[in-house]
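Attaching the record inline, Q. Sequence:
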Amino acid sequence: MTLRLELRDGSIRELPVASWHGPATAGELALLGELPAPVLDVGCGPGRIAAALSAAGTPSLGIDIAPAAVRCATESGAAALCRSVFDAVPGEGRWGSLVLLDGNVGIGGDPVALLRRCRELGRSGARLVLEVDPPGVPGGTTEARIHTADAEPGPWFPWSVVSVDDLEQLARAAGAELLGVTEGDGRHFAQLEFGGTRRVGPEWGTIAVIAKTPVPGRVKTRLCPPCGPRQAADLATAALQDTLAAACAARAGRRVLVLEGEAGDWVPQGMEVIEQATGGLGDRLQALFETLAVTGSGRGHGAVVVVGMDTPQVMPEQLEGALDVLCNEGTDAVLGRCPDGGYWTIGFDAAVMERGLRPFEGVPMSTGETAEAQLARLGELGLGVALVGQQRDIDHWEDALAVARTHPHLNTSRVVGAIGEQLTGAAGPPEVVALCNRIGDDDR
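Structure, as predicted:
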């Protein structure tokens, strides 16, 4: 069987299906022989790694979401279960090593969240082996789909590309230490170790959502055209609701909506609401962090992570993960990039504000260079920065379509579908028709 992985940029990767069904290579066996037991093979596929471990007498388990792959794995002599790494896994917190080979680091499009989950599954000091792309390959979050020789391409799904160049930042964001990178069989393997000193857990932090009241003509104006002001405001309301829901579901000590305008019935019960400061975005962010750092001081709410209302697809685990990263010694700030050059989240430990630092000073906001300028400013201040997963923010209609396509369960996606139908009735573009057909009656 021939399988190919197509990325959104049009590039094609041939998937070595025959190798997956074959025995473990000499390079893989040498790598596996050094790992502390027991070993969890994440995304085990047909089970060659788990079977090799079993044959060597190493206690191991493979997990995969594909029933056919799990059947192949068990038939090859491996112990394997059909489940996601994000589901309940036997032996949680006791695995000595975990393995992510064959591109599985791209699972879900958020390698930071994936590695954080691996850290939860492993014991203190657990090892992680992951296969990555060679140096020089651009990393980042994208979408991918599977091509087979005799069928139409499958649906697009979130995917991440991680190269050797991304490993230092990825390890830091996941609370791991990069031990080294080896090359064998024309492939690159990294070894990480989970551990390190932690200040506290994310339950002692604050998640803040910075937003405007969704008033027609004042929000999401870059959606117009093709949207009208009312449609743009409806989409903004849905995006804000999805973002607030994620913030409420995340593990945190405090959840705050920092609002410009009047609160409406879209504010969830239990969400604290404070007034947004005036001035430019940098001034408002500075005031926000200063306020929350001061009011949280002495209550254990020292770490603060802020997210806007433009990324409704953000998951509770990702917000919690950003807070979790700030709990690591040596990490003063976190930042999550957007593909357009901006960033969707930023966070600081309370000590940054207590020291009187001004991390937004001189940073141009809402440009294609904002993230780079922000990182440069944090570097000038001598702050330890960890990058968290990339997210696409909804600035333009094509962004809304892309988010709805990959996250059809969101309120935002249902609103995009309804707007799409209205635009289609007014001779809208073909991609709107396709989106509405995909969302369908099940999501209304």
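The longest helix spans residues 229-249. The two ends are 38 Å apart (CA to CA).

More tomorrow.
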